[in-house]
Specification:
Blueprint: H1 3-23, H2 53-60, H3 86-98, H4 109-126, E1 136-137, H5 140-162, H6 168-172, E2 175-180, H7 185-194, E3 197-201, H8 211-223, E4 227-234, H9 246-256, E5 259-263, E6 288-291, H10 293-296, E7 304-308, H11 312-318, H12 349-383, E8 388-390, E9 399-404, H13 409-422, E10 428-432, E11 435-441, H14 449-469
Parallel strand pairs: 2-3, 2-4, 4-5, 5-6
Antiparallel strand pairs: 1-7, 6-7, 8-9, 9-11, 10-11
Helix pairs in contact: 3-12, 4-12, 5-7, 5-11, 8-9, 12-14, 13-14
Bound molecules: pyridoxal-5'-phosphate.
The site of pyridoxal-5'-phosphate has 14 residues, from α5.
């Protein structure tokens, strides 16, 4: 803990990152290395004697940076975006510098209190219903897992009232979770951890989960003596950015005593723009809602926000209360340790606080709208080229799914492979309803019209080469 060294080394480190940001566009978006590349470049044992900070900085390019995939390159169109901004990075420095572990209010009051406040700011900015209490979380996957555990705790309490002899073990055999066949794999993982059954509801031709299919599944499962208790609906699916019909699904969940959790990991950020709020029609039925500011709201990983209608079931699900964690204010201030699996909790809310203050809601809206405009520009290119077609069109946010018209899966796979081997741009595919499709997601805060034009030139060139060969 040497403040002078922090100043001098911090300056070196910041300069390195600033230079990286300045030159990121010139780097190949995908690294040219093979698995195991790093081991021969590093000593086989940790250094016995201390080294100079400048030596580490000097080594970075030839070791670590050689193996980086540049997620913030304007040529990165893969997966979904992951946010970043100088505001969030600076906030992270403060969080790392304070380095508190805010598991309870007393463990660091400002850590808990700022989280409550920025979660309220965020809820207001998105126009979420007032019944959502303030809380935060680590990642969207964790939000699904903890809400599933809370829902299990709720159904267990309800069943115990009917039959005091019932055990959780017995009940688990009967519990069944629903999600669409397009839901993120984190739902499968959560049910594996919790140990209950999962049923995937078949989505319609546009990848949307609808109430009628859910209702039918519930009828069939109740006939088998199963107990439906949790539904994950997605707003903005990973593969095609489809939006489940939460108004219809919500009504079914209300009638059937099913906890409705919304995973809006990517698309949630768009709700900061009033023109996209219609996409969460039906939000009044929701028991819990999560999205990732760390995807599309200028906040670096990790920062996932989660709200719940009734916190009781969280406290029930995770309430362990050893003496060393007790404090005098635990009935008046939230202790976030009850909302998560780890005990320790980072001071993540600083990132949101800095981003809100530096960009303002207006700046965040401008950023989201710009990405959506860039996606529309790409759609325009695809639609005006007879070789391609847009597939599974959803409400266009920043993701465009396309493929070669009448092209086989093999041909589309070849196209993607050629594009990624070329390394000028980076895309990932999806397999949706038996079709191999290419996903083009606007990701970087540096992406401008000229980059989308460039990406289109690359796609055009590589497609022409491929089609002349075949
Ligand atoms: N849910 C959806 C719809 C996603 O698209 C993703 C990641 O892309 C996740 C969940 C997982 O998010 P996290 O990495 O925050 O767990």
């Amino acid at each position: 803990m040497d403040p002078d060294q922090l100043m001098s080394c911090g300056q070196m480190m910041l300069k390195f990152v600033a230079d990286y940001w300045k030159t990121i566009e010139n780097r190949s978006v995908l690294p040219s290395i093979q698995p195991g590349y790093l081991r021969p470049l590093l000593p086989s044992h940790a250094p016995e004697k201390p080294e100079q900070f400048s030596q580490i900085i000097n080594d970075l390019e030839s070791t670590i940076m050689r193996g980086v995939t540049h997620w913030h390159s304007p040529h990165f169109y893969a997966y979904f975006p992951t946010g970043n901004s100088y505001a969030a990075v600076c906030a992270d420095i403060l969080s790392a510098g304070i380095a508190c572990i805010g598991f309870s209010w007393i463990a660091s009051p400002s850590c808990t209190e700022l989280e409550v406040i920025v979660m309220d700011w965020l809820a207001q900015a998105l126009d979420l219903p007032e019944f959502f209490l303030s809380t935060g979380n680590g990642t969207a996957s964790e939000a699904t897992l903890v809400t599933l555990l809370a829902a299990r705790s709720k159904i267990f309490c309800q069943m115990q009232k009917k039959d005091p002899n019932i055990t959780l073990g017995k009940l688990l055999d009967q519990l069944i979770v629903y999600c669409s066949d397009q839901a993120h794999s984190s739902v499968d993982k959560a049910t594996l951890i919790v140990g209950c059954k999962i049923r995937k509801i078949v989505s319609d031709d546009n990848c949307v989960m609808k109430a009628a299919q859910l209702k039918q599944a519930i009828i069939e499962d109740r006939a088998k003596n199963l107990i439906p208790f949790f539904l994950v609906a997605t707003l903005g699916t990973t593969a095609t950015c489809a939006f489940d019909d939460i108004a219809g699904l919500g009504k079914v969940c209300q009638d059937e005593n099913i906890w409705l959790h919304i995973d809006a990991a990517y698309a949630g950020s768009a709700f900061i723009c009033p023109e996209y709020r219609y996409l969460f029609d039906g939000i009044e039925y929701v028991d819990s809602f999560s999205f990732n500011p760390h995807k599309w709201m200028l906040v670096n990983f990790d920062c996932s926000a989660m709200w719940v209608k009734d916190r009781t079931y969280f406290i029930n699900a995770f309430n362990v209360d050893p003496l060393y964690l007790k404090h005098d204010y635990q009935n008046v201030a939230p202790d976030y340790r009850h909302w998560q699996i780890p005990l320790g909790r980072r001071f993540r809310s600083l990132k949101l606080w800095f981003v809100f203050r530096i960009h303002g809601i207006s700046g965040i809206r401008k950023y989201i709208r710009k990405h959506i405009e860039l996606a529309k520009l790409f759609i325009n290119y695809i639609e005006n080229d007879k070789r391609f077609e847009i597939v599974f069109p959803s409400t266009t946010l920043g993701l465009v799914c396309f493929c070669l018209k009448n092209g086989s899966n093999e041909l589309n796979e070849k196209l993607l492979k050629s594009l990624n081997e070329d390394k000028r741009i980076y895309l990932v595919p999806s397999m949706v309803k038996g079709r191999f499709i290419l996903r083009f997601a606007i990701c970087s805060y540096l992406t401008e019209v000229k980059h989308v034009d460039y990406a289109w030139t690359v796609i055009n060139e590589i497609t022409t080469k491929l089609l002349t060969k075949t």
